[in-house]
Design brief:
By secondary structure, the protein is α/β, with parallel strands linked by helices. It has 14 helices and 24 strands. It starts with a strand and ends with a strand. The chain binds ligand EPZ.
Length: about 425
């Protein structure tokens, strides 16, 4: 079923919406429900394709999973398999996050090699190097599978070559039942790491340091972990995406349920582009300018730097800004695929490797465009909101992976947008 979003541009977005729970927090936490062999009640889960796939995997290995609105209940007492089928690894690379918890609890795990995706090769060398150091025997990928075995994982001191989010999470989960303490140095500091730590603390794991570059986990080889109820943090990238929608349409939007310190880099850049932004407690109000101002240079960086997951959205806003901007993508190799679609809408952007030079134009014009990845697809929707005429964004399955009911939320703010199946 190929579906599209049809957008008639030119509406100033107005009103308020609530931002859903974080995709990149709920995915590792759903994998972590394997650890306690008990009951896990996870609240404020976003309704996303990627969450559905995680639930399928949990059921595949024997968990009983039910959903009540945005609450997912996982009973992992009935896990009866340590194999994550290859199909899931291909469909969703972040299924690699099952490696740590399954290995930690059962001493072995077989998982499809995630392979790359559209934004880059997405290697897992940092994950495997750390697990090997903890005592895991890893057979190289055969027929697309990675076979891991560890009689007993040993806690140890791990220095990450790069503050990889997924590697930090996998090591945290593998360390839970290891013998001895694990230190992860040069750890990723993203808020999603902190949410995962809070979940583990709720299970009874002695862990600290998440949000800093050193995370310390006291391995508890045979500890019985507790049942848990946990509320997922708000999605900082979804929040940023709707903020850019307001910025591009000269809108007046209030976002509810946000965590201000998680979006400070995005707020800072949008203020530099001329947006008026007021933040109080868990609410943010943004007023877009008549036309955004160019920003000299933005580099995407690991948290708390400007998020790579906001790169496509900010470039799209700068495409209609007054002046020329430069955006450098330092995290992924190939995260500008949406640019060629923007060029078809009249943007003036030059790409040189990981550098985009964006010469703002007065107006984009509506066109037929195709989403190629999650955030690039969302950026094309933003372009359609500001463009003259009608824009059709196809292949929106990419967008549905990371945004809950995007067209309903934008329509709630006055956008002329509909889903065509
Ligand atoms: C997480 O991906 C997020 N996904 C990504 O969000 C996000 O862009 C990324 O972190 C960076 O913030 C989830 O949390 C599910 P990384 P992850 O490991 O863990 C290289 C979205 O749009 N690397 O921090 O895969 C890698 O190639 C998605 O919501 C290695 O070289 O990101 C990349 O260049 C997209 N070897 C860089 O590190 C490894 O073993 C950052 O990757 C692992 C990573």
């Amino acid at each position: 079923m190929v579906s599209s979003l049809v957008i008639t541009g030119g509406q100033k977005l107005k009103g308020e919406i609530r931002v859903e729970g974080s995709k990149n927090a709920v995915l590792p936490i759903l994998a972590a429900t394997v650890l306690n062999g008990g009951l896990n009640v996870i609240k404020n889960c976003p309704g996303l394709k990627d969450v559905e796939i995680m639930i399928e995997i949990l059921r595949e290995i024997g968990c009983v999973v039910s959903k009540e609105g945005s609450t997912i209940i996982v009973d992992s007492s009935s896990v009866n398999s340590t194999i994550v089928p290859e199909a899931y690894a291909i469909e969703m690379r972040s299924s690699i996050i099952f490696l740590g918890p399954i290995l930690s609890r059962f001493g072995k795990a077989t998982i499809g090699h995630p392979g790359g995706c559209d934004i880059g090769p997405r290697p897992i060398d940092l994950h495997l190097k750390a697990l090997k150091k903890m005592g895991t025997k890893i057979q190289d990928a055969q027929r697309g599978f990675i076979y891991c075995e560890a009689d007993k994982l040993k806690g140890c001191d791990i220095q990450l070559d790069y503050p990889s989010v997924g590697a930090t999470e996998n090591i945290m989960l593998a360390a839970v039942f290891a013998e001895g303490d694990t230190y992860i140095r040069n750890a990723a500091k993203e808020p999603e790491i902190v949410d995962l730590q809070n979940f583990l603390i709720g299970l009874g794991v002695n862990i600290s340091g998440a949000g800093t570059s050193v995370v310390h986990i006291e391995g508890a080889a045979n500890k019985k972990l507790k049942n848990i109820e946990h509320v997922i943090i708000s999605d900082r990238i979804t929040a940023g995406t709707y903020m850019v929608a307001a910025a591009m349409t000269g809108g007046d939007v209030t976002l509810k349920g946000i965590v201000p310190e998680h979006i400070s880099a995005t707020v800072s850049s949008l203020r530099e582009a001329g947006c008026r932004i007021n933040v109080k407690r868990n609410e943010l109000h943004i007023s877009g300018p008549a036309r955004p101002k160019a920003i000299d240079i933005i580099r995407t960086l690991p948290y708390p730097g400007f998020p790579t997951d906001m790169q496509a959205q900010i470039v799209t806003m700068l495409a209609i800004a007054r002046g020329t901007s430069i955006v450098v993508e330092t995290v992924f190799e190939n995260r500008f695929m949406y640019v060629e679609e923007l060029l078809r809408m009249g943007a003036n952007i030059k790409l040189e490797g990981r550098i985009a030079v964006i010469k703002g134009v007065k107006k984009l014009t509506g066109a037929q465009v195709a989403a190629r990845d999650l955030r690039g697809g969302a950026a094309l929707v933003l372009a359609g909101l500001a463009a003259e005429g009608v824009t059709t964004v196809s292949s929106i399955k990419h967008i549905d992976r990371g945004y809950e009911n995007i067209e309903e939320k934008l329509a709630q703010l006055g956008a002329l947008i509909r889903r065509e199946v």
